[in-house]
Specification:
550 residues, seven-stranded mixed beta sheet, 26% helix, alpha/beta
Length: 550
Amino acid sequence: MNGVERTDVLVIGSGFGGAIPAYHLAAGGADVVVLERGPWLESSEYEHDFKLGSSYTRIFDFTVGDGMSVLGGNCVGGGSVVYFAAMPRAPRFVFERRGSIKRRMWPAAISRDTLDPWYDRVAESISITQQGWEDVSYSGGLWAAACRHAGRTANPVPAAVDTAACVNCNWMMAGCRFDAKQSLLANYLPAAIAHGAEVRPLHEVQSISRTSDGSYRVTYKIVHGEDYRLTEGEGTIEAKVVVLAAGAAATPVILQRSEGDLGTMPHAVGRYFSGNGERLNTAVLNEERVREVLGLERGDGLAYAANQIGKGPTVANWDRLDGSLPEYTRYSLEQLYFPPGLGTILALAGGPDPTWFGLRKKEMLERWRSWLIIFQMIEDDNEGVFGPPPARGNADRVSQQMLGVGRLSYKPTANTSAAWAMADAECKEILERDGLATVTPWTNDLVGAYTVHPLSSCRIGDDPYTSALDDGHELRGHPGIFVTDGSAVPGALTVNPAMTISALAERAVPGIVRAARERGVEVSYGAPAPDGSTAGRRATAPLAAAALRG
């Protein structure tokens, strides 16, 4: 493939940050090509097993760094295929956070009030269910009951799941073969394709350079469909506008590798990475005390054992999302489930001397059917920094699929460590009250921190030194390059970030359309939601008009 192709807009990545601009730009008349590193699987291909080469390993990207490991999606649809579908909006105080830079991280133009119309656009495009107590799993109900018993409040989580179609197979993280989870394969991506966008799976972008006419040249390699360490060709495509949405663990790596050709990158590219402050606690429940104290029992169901690789969260504790509290003391606690495979590696056995090994660990593992995992999201200090990029992709692949060694370094500050300790203590206070469970954190000491929601490695902001992007998501010093994935989010959100990433991507589109027009692309803005709904479009029309004017 030696020829150079050309298109109006090239989108790198097909997750929330890529699918949303791809749809709007294609619907507006632009020629759009989407390059996705991972495979394109049909619903019937999402397998319920742990075999190498199944959907379980093919559609994930697990990158091990120094002090931080990142689990993300690696497929058409990106993280929307493998996420737990929790879609809360960020609390109001998040937008006023100061963080490690000691001044407001978010651009002045963005607040909860100004982002709400864009949240509404997402809610019109992705079917989100505000779960009721009748939708809550046993484990979610148990968490809610424990919170109430400890004087806390807990509520069901809004989720992009059609509860009527969900069969509770409990393989949610491996992709939904029943089309109950509202991934991007159910809305934005098919709508983009219907408007002429071309989506190319197994295309891994390597670098970006500038052409003589001011466009951009993007080079890629074609990844082998089974062994991701191998490639089967390469190519080049030129575009007038590039939208980077490869994920917060890959987008900065592409830009770093491109610096020799593009010129100096903003200081913040590859810095200020946040793992959304995530950490896990393992509670081993005393089923007898649960019955006696909370009046709950599993009955004939296998509330935990059946959840092979994860049942999405149905209930979260919101008591610590109070904007009047000091920064680094606010967090949310969600109930979820992780499989014994991961638990075997990460879970500590409790006691006076917590341990990874030995008799207490063996006894703990034998009781895995009574585990409850609590997922905490605190306010961290954006400590992550990316080192020099690897020769190819975002990591050195060390296995046929899924596993790679990246260049991310993460050393928690005292602020982050104290916030984790506070959330850990609250988990213990809630679940160990009256002997309900024994709780231990998944410590960072052996394998470092772990996140499924990487953020902030190319963030938006008003300060050119601490933000790689302006408030319109355009890369500073490189007009026509935009970043719209989790990289752009300035910091930890204390809740699941998919809804906020999506709202920011929706908000960025009018500015991208304006830039495309300035670069000679005939494109309009104003498409309805993917299903044709227009209420959200009407609500954001004044905001879009301002962005289109610049």
